[in-house]
From TrEMBL:
Natural source organism: Amycolatopsis rhabdoformis
Domain Alcohol dehydrogenase iron-type/glycerol dehydrogenase GldA intervals: 12-182
UniProt family annotation: Belongs to the iron-containing alcohol dehydrogenase family.
SUPFAM superfamilies reported for this sequence: Dehydroquinate synthase-like
Keyword Signal: no
Fe-containing alcohol dehydrogenase-like C-terminal domain: residues covered: 195-384
Name of the protein: Iron-containing alcohol dehydrogenase family protein
Gene3D superfamilies reported for this sequence: 3.40.50.1970, Dehydroquinate synthase-like - alpha domain
Length: 393
């Protein structure tokens, strides 16, 4: 028995699809909007094109300084400004932090404050409490500028004042419309595409062996992993402007990764990445770039059949054979992304504290192999620090 819950969503992929935004907003009965983005994303080609697409709508509010990891204090301050004059829709331009902020705003405007009361709680080792959010939500329309796929999912992350990543979940805040227009990615740095693409690949890998996986998510995850293994090394090896068809393939992979973790939830890998980002300032894509092979090896003895599927998908994309962990490390090398925690600027002396904090993350609930204590996490972190992928699997 399994459950597959599909959000009501429109995903458009292809050159020129930014032109569909006015029609999609009209279909949502939206006349006024709040524009949400980061300084980089709103100044980018995507930001400029979005402003043009919104010319026939009232941009009632604009929040253009979204910070990495979506601090709760910032989001609640924005929501207070919107509370007495809410827009008909939220339009988000940017990556995961921008998308998560828009989702959180939608929750706060319908469910009230504080945001932390709307987030799941996890008590180690295996007690997860989900908060049911029943009120109708202001729709979110997203124009992504990264390959994370976060905009597709019904969940989001928000960082509290202690530097702990909190997670909320509500199908009604998944973006009602996502526009993947490769022509808007011409000025996105290749480094950002690569690291956020590794996040998308990690979504597919963890989804395959998630406790909430199903035959539907298996099929999606394998296809997403194959596409990432094909596109990321091509992006990393490019010497000139990236071809539109390559970007379209990468964006398709990102969308698939978002779809798959909307049902098959992430585990230890993302638990580590949440802590590295929220508490230690490591960009989420960079943390994902580093951690994947090492967590795959930790989980291998409990997930051999699923990792064999992943290995075939990665091998098809790379034209190579090997274990899933070895092939994930090969994607790292061919893409040119950071490969060790030592590359991130994290101090080796921080590893024990990182391991302790990971034990509080809800991702451990969905991990297929029990994580008994911080020492188990520390072993994974030490391999990630030194870059040790044994290949024994």
């Amino acid at each position: 028995m399994f459950r597959y819950d599909q959000a009501r969503q429109v995903l458009t992929v292809g050159a020129g699809t930014i032109a569909t935004v006015p029609g999609e907003l009209t279909a949502l009965s939206a006349r006024s909007v709040c524009l949400v983005g980061s300084p980089r994303s709103l100044a980018s080609a995507a930001g400029r094109a979005t402003r043009e697409a919104l010319q026939g709508f009232e941009v009632r509010h604009e929040f253009g300084k979204i910070a990495p990891h979506a601090p709760i204090t910032d989001t609640e301050a924005m929501a207070r400004q919107l509370r007495d004059d809410p827009p008909d829709a939220l339009v988000a331009v940017g990556g995961g932090s921008v998308s998560d902020t828009a989702k959180a705003l939608s929750i706060l405007l319908s469910e009230g404050f504080p945001l932390e009361a709307k987030c799941s709680t996890f008590t180690p080792p295996d007690v997860l409490r989900h908060v049911q959010l029943d009120q109708p939500k202001i729709p979110v329309v997203t124009i992504p500028t990264t390959l994370s796929g976060a905009e597709v999912t019904p969940g989001g992350g928000a960082t509290d004042a202690r530097g702990i990543k909190r997670v909320f979940w509500d199908q009604k805040v998944a973006s009602r419309v996502v526009v993947y227009d490769p022509e808007l990615f011409t000025d996105v740095p290749a480094e950002l595409l690569l690291t956020t693409g590794m996040n998308g690949l990690a979504h597919c890998a963890e989804a395959l062996y998630s406790k909430s996986a199903s035959p539907f998510t298996d099929a999606l995850a394998a296809e997403g992993a194959r596409r990432f293994a094909t596109t990321l090394p091509s992006i990393g090896g490019a010497t000139g402007p990236l071809p539109v068809d390559l970007l379209e393939d990468a964006l398709t992979a990102a969308a698939i990764g978002g779809l798959v973790i909307s049902n098959a939830r992430v585990g230890l890998h993302h638990a580590v990445c949440h802590v590295l980002g929220a508490a230690y300032g490591v960009p989420h894509g960079v943390a994902n770039s580093v951690m994947l092979p090492y967590v795959l090896e930790y989980n291998h003895d409990h997930t051999e059949a699923k990792q064999a599927i992943l290995a075939r998908a990665l091998g098809d994309g790379l034209g190579e054979t090997g274990s899933a962990a070895v092939l994930a490390a090969l994607v790292q090398r061919r893409s040119g992304v950071p490969r060790t925690l030592a590359d991130t600027g994290l101090a080796e002396s921080d590893l024990p504290r990182v391991a302790e904090e990971v034990m509080q993350d809800r991702g451990l609930f969905f991990n297929p192999k029990r994580v008994p204590d911080a020492d188990a996490v520390l072993g994974v972190l030490r391999h990630a620090w030194s870059g040790t992928v044994t290949g024994a699997a």
